[in-house]
Amino acid sequence: MSAELKAINITKQYKDTKALDNITLSITPGKIYGLLGRNGAGKTTLLSALTAQIRITSGEVLYGEEKVWENENALKDLCFSREINPVTFMGPNTLKVKDYLEAASSYLPHWDKEYADRLIKEFNLDPKKKVSKLSKGMMSMLTIVIAMASMAPITMLDEPVAGLDVVARELFYKILLEDYTKTNRTFIVSTHIIEEAVDAIEEVIILNKGKIICQENTVDFIGSYQLISGKDSVIDEISSKFEVIHTDTSGRSKSICVHTDYDSAEKLCQGYNVDVSPLSLQKIFVYLTEDNK
């Protein structure tokens, strides 16, 4: 069983840009986390900081009570499987799939070769194929194989389904949930394809412009936002009763996304001719991270 992974007031500064801005979060063992954020929000930087792949500007990352930076004892339990580059500074990446697996087995102490071999077959990957010849989807499959076969107590995947077709994406989530059920490992999955991930993630973390704006149980989080729709004059009259996150207007109709639970919204809307309905995680994410907020 892994220990708790904690980021305490971590900041990562690149010249005039704060990629991470005073972030504090806790990764509790035995959960699947969904890390959501727009392009440039800082997701990859955060995962890199949590696994000591970059030096943070300030703050600290702890695994249990030990600092992660340059700590082999802590790092052996952490795996961050990130996108593989088909091109190196010397030209095309001529390493083969089997070369990556051999390298992974040497630096990941919990490596399970039999599991890796099985996943290679499930994804129909050719071990002898050069990385430079792999499609975008195949490279994603290779990063998934490395992450899953690492058997690291805390395993992080950065956009693992990028480039995968719908069949391969479903296979990934099937493998993820089967592994989680069997091992109770901790997973952090960063993804842009939100609705396909929602059933797998127990806790959602939303990163926006280098800051965490939400870390909450997924079901509770989705249940805390509602959409209220009706005539614009009626919506204008009741909007002051709520914390309004987003407004849409279409002709004489209007809808507002409000931050409250369903029962409270229904109660406050009694006597008004409006509809109260739940929202998807993807819609809530869009409303919370849109540029005009």
Please give a handful of descriptors for the protein shown.
alpha/beta; 4-stranded antiparallel beta sheet; 6-stranded mixed beta sheet; 11 helices; 293 residues
Structural account:
The structure is a single chain. The protein is α/β, with parallel strands linked by helices and 293 residues long. It is built from eleven helices and 16 strands. It has helices at 43-50, 72-75, 97-107, 113-122, 136-149, 166-183, 194-197, 218-222, 232-238, 262-268, 281-289; strands at 5-14, 17-27, 32-36, 58-63, 66-67, 78-81, 87-88, 91-92, 154-158, 186-190, 203-208, 211-217, 225-231, 244-250, 253-259, 274-278. A hairpin with a 2-residue loop joins β4 (58-63) and β5.
Shape: elongated
Rounded to an integer in angstroms, the radius of gyration calculated over CA atoms is 22 Å
Order of helices and strands: EEEHEEHEEEHHHEHEHEEHEHEEHEH
Q: Into which percent range does the helicity of residues fall?
A: 25-40%
What percentage of amino acids are in beta strands?
25-35%
Name the poorly predicted regions.
none
**Oligomerization category of the chains in this entry:** single chain
Strand order of the largest sheet: 6-9-10-3-11-12
Distance between the termini: 40 Å
Number of strands: 16
Major sheet details? 6 strands, mixed
